[in-house]
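Quick one:
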Amino acid sequence: MIARWIRRMAAVVVVVLTADAATGAQAVPGWMTNTQPGSAVHVTMKTGEAFDAIWMGRDGERAVFERFDPHETISVPQESVRRVRTRKRSSPSSNTTYMAQLGIATGVFGVLAIIGLMLRGG
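Output:
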């Protein structure tokens, strides 16, 4: 008798918790859960306005961003956001990398040439 009661209660708890989890998961856009707070993002609003910002996180049903220009913190309803894309981090350009490698190769070649000239002359 007690085992049957425990199984029924467990089934009720599972049904109740699953329903809450399913409705909660549908209410939040994917970018709100997949984007780490502090990430640099490009935000496009449903009105067509677009701006670069730092994703600060959720405040209930609102999304909080720290805009780059003008520098301000804004809180907007999540329904008013069309798209949020993570911006790529700034990294040295490929030309800078190639120039550094070329500089190192030139330095090594120069040292070898000087050693060769010293050995030839001596």
